[in-house]
Write a structure and sequence with these properties.
This protein is of the alpha+beta class. It has helices at 3-12, 15-21, 23-27, 60-65, 67-84, 101-118, 186-191, 193-199, 213-225, 244-248, 265-274, and strands spanning 42-46, 49-58, 87-97, 122-128, 135-144, 158-163, 168-169, 175-177, 205-208, 228-232, 251-252, 255-260, 278-286, 290-295, 298-304. It has 2 domains: 3-28 and 148-304, Alpha-Beta Complex (Phosphoribosyl-aminoimidazole Synthetase, Chain A, domain 2); 42-144, PurM-like, N-terminal domain (60s Ribosomal Protein L30, Chain: A, 2-Layer Sandwich). Strand 7 (168-169) and strand 8 (175-177) form a beta hairpin. Helix 5 (67-84) packs parallel to helix 6 (101-118).
Length: 314
């Protein structure tokens, strides 16, 4: 087995990929509705565009080990979901379980810090400080004039990865943190790139990089759009001092995969560069419904979407 095939095998067995592939078992037990499932948010049409609605839960070991950063992340990842859809956040609510008010203190402090950084108010929620475990979920609403979705990648598009490399890992977790401690206003203003791309007609398909890393995120986008792609690992922007395999599974505070028509690629990359965000074309979309990765002279099949669902988007 080649080194690349071995890498693909480890990625498929990783916690991030497994968490995402578990979604198919949940979706298969839910009734099919009018809103397509597979995007970062539910996009509900209204007279002024779209109401965006999403929720994120933090894994319990993360909440116990890093309560402040778990609280911060719970707001941050929801904000990222809204911007990934071409929207702007309005407000969040939380559901928090802990053993005492004291144990909840750091989680709440982290949430409050992220609320300030991103300018998104916490307007209510649910709390239980007499629980036998640490659990946290945060829900968000936002609004978009024009959507970025997971359903509009087209054969011939360029796949672009955009990521803020001005950060560090939050050891021992695969979270690449370029948000905490950044200059005031920078993190929020960087996110404004996404709705601007949508509203200016430069992009209409995107997804924020999640626990499945850049390849798992691209896979979800491609599955929803019923397409495939070839992705060149040598083109992926990465920190020079990072372990590359770890980077492939990283969950960055600012990271997106975009599917962009060829005529708009240069403008999109220039917009990210203007804000010192690393971006590059990492592959191209095709009609194969296979996701193939290449590195040097090697290639390996990451996923055959004709034969095997990933998140089983409908």
């Amino acid at each position: 087995m080649s080194a690349l095939a071995s890498l693909v095998g480890r990625l498929r067995e990783s916690r991030g990929f497994q968490h995402k592939s578990d979604i198919s078992g949940v979706l298969s037990r839910l009734p099919e509705g009018a809103i397509a499932i597979g995007d970062d948010c539910a996009a509900i049409p209204d007279n002024d565009g779209y109401l965006l609605f999403a929720i994120e839960g933090m894994v319990s070991d993360f909440v116990r080990a890093m309560p402040w950063f778990a609280g911060y992340s719970s707001v941050m990842v929801n904000v990222s979901d809204i911007y990934a859809m071409g929207g702007r956040p309005i407000a969040v609510v939380d559901a928090l379980w802990s053993g005492s008010t004291y144990e909840a203190k750091e989680v709440l402090a982290g949430m409050a810090a992220a609320s300030k950084v991103y300018g998104v108010p916490i307007v209510g929620g649910h709390s239980n400080v007499r629980s036998d475990g640490a659990q946290l979920a945060v829900s968000i609403v936002g609004r978009a004039r024009k959507l970025l979705t997971s359903f509009d990648a087209k054969p011939g598009d360029a796949l672009i990865m955009a990521v803020d490399l001005r950060g560090n890992y939050e050891d021992p977790y695969p979270f690449w943190n370029a948000s905490v401690g950044s200059p005031e206003g920078r993190a929020r203003d960087d996110f404004e790139l996404l709705p601007a791309l949508a509203e200016d007609g430069l992009c209409d398909a995107a997804k924020d990089i999640s626990m499945a890393g850049v390849l798992g995120t691209a896979l979800m986008l491609l599955e929803c759009s019923k397409v495939g792609a070839r992705i060149d690992l040598d083109l992926i922007p990465d920190p020079n001092d990072s372990n590359f395999e770890r980077w492939l599974g990283a969950f960055p505070s600012f990271g997106f995969v975009l599917s962009v028509r060829p005529k708009h690629v240069d403008v999109v990359i220039a917009r990210f560069a203007a804000r010192e965000i690393a971006s590059a074309v990492i592959g191209h979309v095709d009609a194969s419904r296979e996701v193939v990765v290449t590195q040097g002279d090697e290639s390996a099949l990451l996923w055959n979407l004709r034969e095997e669902a990933f998140i089983c988007a409908r």
